[in-house]
Design brief:
Layout (H helix, E strand, L loop, with lengths): L24 H10 L17 E4 L14 E4 L1 H20 L1
Antiparallel strand pairs: 1-2
The structure holds zinc ion (ZN).
């Protein structure tokens, strides 16, 4: 039996947790839909074979593992993003 009591209700779809190891089709579709199938960095139209999904604020820097923190990027923005994250992470550890 299902109890209504104590059942957490997701109020904001952006707070939907995403998997640790891989993205579900639903998460991928939701992000692409939100971004109108365009890169979050440069607005280039994304093609399915070369789309990268990154956390805008990485978990190691305190970012939530949720849909709202996820961004779809083209390969070139993904590279820039990763470079920035690596630098941020280095700064983070030096504190
Ligand atoms: Zn881009």
């Amino acid at each position: 039996m299902t109890s209504w009591q104590g059942t957490p209700v997701a109020v904001n779809p952006d707070d939907t947790p995403i998997g640790d190891a891989y993205l579900t089709h639903e998460a991928v579709r939701a992000v692409l839909e939100r971004q109108d199938n365009r890169c979050a960095g440069c607005s280039a139209v994304l093609d399915a074979g070369s789309t990268y999904f990154d956390l805008r604020l990485p978990v190691i820097c305190g970012g939530p593992h949720t849909l709202g923190n996820l961004a779809a990027l083209c390969p070139s923005c993904h590279r820039n993003h990763m470079r920035r994250i690596r630098k941020q992470f280095a700064d983070h550890r030096n504190k």
